[in-house]
Amino acid sequence: MGYMETEAPQSALPLFPPPAPQNAIDPALQARLARLAAGRAPRDQPGATSRTTPAAAAPRRKRHAAKGSRAAAVLMSITTTAGLTAYFQHADSAAASTGTSSLSGVAVASGTAATTTASTAASTTASSSTASTTAATQTTVAAAAAATTATTTTLADGTYTGATSTNRWGPVQVQITVSGGVITQSVAIQTPTGGKSDGINARATPTLASEVLTAQSAKIDTVSGATYTSESYKASLQSAIDLARSTAAQAGATS
Amino acid sequence: MSAVIARGGRHHVEIVMGMAVSIDIRDDVPIEALEDVLRWLHHVDDTFSTYKPDGPISRFGTGAATLEDMSDEVIGVLALCEELYDDTGGAFDVFVVPAPNGSHLDPSGLVKGWSIERAAEILEGHGATNFCINAGGDIAIRGHAQPGEPWLVGIRHPDQPDMSAAVVAGAGRLAVATSATYERGAHIIDPTTGEPTADLASVTIVGPDLTFADAYATAVFVMGPEGLNWLAEHHPDYAAFIITRDDAALSTSNFADHRLS
Question: ipTM beyond 0.85?
């Protein structure tokens, strides 16, 4: 099966609609562009700001329909997303000792409480959840699953404290509670203090909730990610979705 | 009257601008809708590609042509790039990226989102109301995926290509753009150091217009987690979702408005 074949359009053909007319260009901006392109001259700093104080950048012009005063406070939801290999040390269960568990396997693990050391391989179980009723997707997922072997991981009930990770704004540490083999609660037990990140944390409400468990199994229509090359696209999940969708559309066209 | 492409819509993938552009239309639309979009995308490629040494943007960037030789379209895009440079405190800078044509001008970080927003307008001009355009991972959606059902956009997990780290649900007009290094390597340059940025695994921006969502994603990637504050203060109608190399996810509070799971 293939995609609809379309010849490269003739450039001589008119565009529809024509590109929106541009506003008159400020002569100063024209000079700036010309200088930047031709002179390789050092940039004028945008005011006295730099990226370390981005909030002090030039005031925003109302370009697009702002929806007004949606709460702007930054909620720093420090979550370990599922599959991200955060390593947790057991806090109150001798059984776990110092074993590290990849959270990637936790998402769908349940039942017996057996703490195992998991590789950082992809979660095989959760992968199958992306089978959005499409054969193409299933093919992709199956390949991934085969490559990761069976690294079933379950978590023993208890409370786990994550290793401290240091980001630009300071140390972050999270704690999760496991009950019945699944994460039932997660909280940030150490939030950054001091330094330039105060602006974030002063308004932050560190919440983890159970986000580590979610998002893996949802049916999706499309995938947002780093720009893949046309080559890597062929192996992407988006490609599989496109194939399935294209097939469905063609089937609909003939029915 | 134009022939209808297909009942129940049409799905098409076009390789253009060095990437795959997936166009998923779920309305009955005339074939001209798709043709016009493809013609537009190839025009953008011809005009703005830094891989085409004879194209306008290459000629301008390398000094083979001056600004006077550029069309209003090109000047308008460059002007927008400079406005974003100012707006982002220099974090978004199209004149710092080493381009394939040997110049220091690469507006690709803006052109992609901008051109896809225009493509969406073209489809709307043909009467399409429910569609999704995915340009190499940056997405503009309109309407619904099915009657009453939002579009579900998976945000790719940085380490696991087949999995989502989060899912955004969107209906009506919404854009989702992600900047990350897992596909093309450390290509996002910090203008203040000239070095590739390394702190974050991916940055996803959700908001009304892909032109800006795409540019903000690049800027926040450069800014690092502090970019959350910048976005919340300057563009509260946009939300950010960051995955750090330490495998933590950070977001602006309004990301919860878009997040399904």
Answer: yes
